[in-house]
Amino acid sequence: MSGHNKWSTIKRKKGALDAKRSKIFSKIIKDITIAVRESGLDPDGNPRLRLAIANARGASMPKETIQRAINKGADKDAAALLETTYEGKGPHGIALFIECTTDNAQRTVSNIRSYFSKHGGEMGKNGMLNYLFDRKGIFEVPKGELDQEEFEMALIDAGAEDINLEDGIFTITTAMEDFGNMMRKLEELHVEPESASLQRIPRSTENLDPESARKVLKLIELIEDDDDVQNVYHNLALTDDLAEG
Questions:
Q1: Is this prediction's pTM over 0.90?
Q2: Could you give all domains of the chain from N- to C-terminal order, each with its CATH number?
């Protein structure tokens, strides 16, 4: 899972440089809104809402902002939000899987298609990339005062497939089926993750020379900056010089 960890490191560093907190907040607010509309206002009976609130706290979102997002989800007159995915190949055949939440699907698909066409890629049919990615639970937990050995043993008992500690952050990987078990274990340990989500992890990665790889990363960042885009997954191998660049 080193490729995923390296990408997380790149995004954390870029987030600090680019001050993208408003974008992060926007994503979480949409998650909260949809969670409320799907299963109600009570976090105890709504696992998705409980997770979204945990992610909001991990991102240091103010309590008032969290509450406004919950209220928005309960507002029957608010614009409906649709969750949708798009797939395609970027420059040099790199696979891109894009998750969106939008109130205008026509606008979103038009934007995504234009990003691909203007940057040497091509949008494809949904399902074309399923064989390239596995759904995994990914948790990021600050080490803080945690005893590494004891903490890792507890996580393994809860189904952790991989645990990596880098820059003071534990990145924990589980099978999709063990995502709930890991959430419960962290709650039992009174540990609040900085983020927790189901992600699409590539089964294998493609190596490109640095110049070509940066062209792909430029497209990925452009797509991520779209207000309707929640996540972008890819199978580009991320080298040390890309992480440092």
A1: no
A2: 2-74 (1.10.10.200)
